[in-house]
Amino acid sequence: MPVSPEEEWTYWDTKATELRRGQLVTIQTAATRWAALLTALLGVFGTVAFAGGLTTVDKLPGWLPWVVRALTTLAAASAVTGIVVLSMAAGGLFVSRQPGSSATAVRRLYTTQMGAALALLNRGRAFAVAAAVLVLLGSLIVLWTPEKSASPSQTTVVTRCP
């Protein structure tokens, strides 16, 4: 079904307008998905950690228990920061009253917030990836490092003299 050049232009101009107007919602949706992904990944890693238990860390030789504890601490801090930043990017954490509801005010609000939301999304993703990498690194250390050898026990022999 052929269309005129004007109809074609109108169609694509409408699509461009929809995309331009929906940028903030797109970023907020992406941030929500990243927060959900981070939460799911940490849930999986948390389950694995409970299966291995913290006593596994104490069985590592030398300075490795301190490395794993540091990685775990950094991963937890990164995960919490990532969840907070991604939630801020998704919007709705901080609700405020907007003065005026004119088309110009709403347009300014959405275009200004789009830039800030995109920056928060990028930072949140960086924290999420860092948390996942730290957890994986710590898990690999625990998984592939042999346990420290137990101290040889002293054998006591009791004899009776006749």
Q: Secondary-structure blueprint of this entry?
A:
Blueprint (H helix, E strand, L loop, with lengths): L4 H17 L1 H30 L2 H4 L5 H27 L12 H42 L18
Helix pairs in contact: 2-4, 2-5, 4-5
Structure overview:
With 162 residues, the protein is mainly α. The chain has one domain (28-144). The chain is built from five helices and no strands. Helix 2 (23-52) packs antiparallel against helix 4, helix 2 runs parallel beside helix 5 (103-144) and helix 4 (64-90) packs antiparallel against helix 5. The longest helix has 42 residues, at 103-144. 17% of the residues are buried.
Give the CA-based shape.
rod-shaped
N-to-C SSE string, H for helix and E for strand? HHHHH
The end-to-end distance, rounded to whole angstroms, is 115 Å
Radius of gyration: 28 Å
Approximate strand percentage: under 5%
| Number of E strands | 0
Mean pLDDT across the residues is 79
Number of domains: 1
Class based on secondary structure composition and strand pairing: mainly alpha
Number of helices: 5
Low-confidence stretches: none
Largest sheet: none
Helix content range? over 70%
Please sum up the structure shown.
With 162 residues, the protein is an all-alpha fold. It contains five helices and no strands.
